[in-house]
Design a protein that fits this description.
The structure is a single chain. With about 400 residues, this protein is mainly beta. The chain has one helix and 32 strands. It has a five-stranded mixed beta sheet. A hairpin with a 5-residue loop joins strand 4 and strand 5. The radius of gyration is 19 Å and the shape is globular. This is Outer membrane biogenesis protein BamB. It comes from Lignipirellula cremea.
Length: about 400
């Protein structure tokens, strides 16, 4: 009962209405990787439970979204000179349309093929996508351009950018950056016109997507930057509270559950959990602080008093939400290599897509149990799993896969 109540609260914390079977944004309906679907596949491979697979023209790290009978995915060509939003039919993977945006300026990045890392987002009427320095674009579900913002500035960082847009009520919010020397700011625009509603500046940028949560009777946005995790009023952009303790290279998205917010830095950086009960500087309300840890790229899950996550080298972790004590204490990583994927929860399981294309499935339990590893030989991926209406979607460098149970 507690778990279902938690998921119900998460589903109602967003300002837009979503269908339970859709996956409308980065990390799904809740922004935290939760799926409420039943009879979700446990096992698949390149020859088992394959609904379809299609070839992709270019590599990419972004995760697809799904609304109704359509799948939306971004990609860019080498050096990011053309950045695209693609729409596929979920039934068979047929490409329905593709909108290309040319960009002839230089933009620093870690890899010449990775210029579209952000997921699109949709409310069922429009699809909004961030294409990095090329801007933010809004289309209807048939691909007609509704508005664009090409005045957001160049985002200049050696590791590129990754934050996805978030639809909240009548707003679209986008964490703009990171910039080594330029501006880092959280932007809110009117979702129908693209006009600016408010801006919130920060000294330092990060890569994680902000998270909308319900705290008490009000909504707020969790923004993880350096050195603090912050709460932002989604209607005004006003800073509500701040909790110090993060270090540079914040790749993950914030997590939330049971009135507690969790944020994690990467590259051997710090992690923290804080009870949300005040305003201003709430650093003294931290429940725990891990000052130096491990490399984290993918985001975790908060569920039933535990924090689950997997470090980049493939070692899974479970921490007590209140004390920060490690529960699983896994000494060696399961076979499967490294991961940049964020966890997805369904039916008591935690799914993590690995960089070699395989997916590891764990029991969402304080007792460690690896349930299965689903392999896709000769594939590579930096994306995350998607669950929608009985289907599982996996984006690799080479293909978009749909897995579904045989009927």
């Amino acid at each position: 009962m507690k778990r279902m109540l938690t998921l119900a609260l998460l589903l109602t914390s967003l300002g837009s209405i979503v269908q339970a079977e859709d996956w409308p944004a980065w990390r799904g309906p809740t922004g935290q990787g939760f799926s409420t679907e039943k009879n979700v596949l446990l096992n698949w491979s390149d020859s088992e439970n394959v609904g379809w697979k299609i070839s992709l023209e270019h590599q990419g790290n972004s995760t697809p979204i799904v609304w109704g009978d359509k799948i939306f995915l971004t990609q860019a060509d080498k050096d990011g000179t053309t950045r695209s939003l693609l729409c596929f039919a979920r039934a068979d993977g047929q490409k329905l349309w593709q909108n290309d945006v040319p960009y002839d300026k230089k933009e620093r990045n870690w890899n010449a093929n990775w210029y579209c890392n952000a997921s699109p987002t949709t409310d069922g009427e429009r699809v909004v996508v961030s294409l990095g320095s090329a801007g933010m674009y809004c289309y209807d579900l048939d691909g007609k351009e509704l508005w664009k913002r090409t005045d957001l500035g160049a985002w200049d960082h050696a590791f590129g950018n990754a934050s996805s847009p978030v639809i909240y009520g009548d707003l679209v919010m986008l964490w703009c950056g990171p910039n080594d020397k330029g501006r880092n700011y959280l932007l809110a625009v009117n979702k129908e016109t693209g006009e600016t509603v408010w801006e919130h500046d920060e000294k330092n940028g990060s890569w994680g997507t902000p998270l909308v949560i319900r705290q008490g009777n009000d909504d707020q946005v969790l923004l993880a930057t350096v050195p603090a995790l912050k709460g932002i009023n989604p209607l005004t952009g006003e800073e509500l509270w701040s909790c110090d303790g993060l270090t540079k290279y914040v790749y993950t998205s914030p997590l939330y559950g049971d009135g507690v917010a969790v944020a994690m830095s990467g590259y051997s950086g710090a992690a923290l959990a804080v009870k949300l009960s005040g305003s201003g500087d709430i650093t003294s309300d931290r429940l725990w602080h891990h000052p130096k840890n491990i490399q984290r790229v993918g985001s975790g899950i908060v569920l039933d008093g535990y924090v689950y996550m997997m470090e980049e080298n493939g070692v899974p972790h479970c921490y007590d939400l209140i004390t920060g004590e490690e529960v699983w204490k896994v000494k060696t990583r399961p076979s499967g290599g490294n991961t940049w994927g964020s966890m997805v929860y369904a039916e008591g399981r935690l799914y993590v897509l690995m960089r070699n294309g395989s997916t590891q499935v764990f029991a969402a339990s304080p007792k460690y149990e690896l349930l299965t590893t689903n392999s896709l030989p000769n594939e590579s991926s930096n994306s995350s799993l998607v669950i929608s209406n009985g289907d599982l979607f996996v984006r690799t460098f080479e293909h978009l896969w749909c897995f579904r149970a045989k009927k």
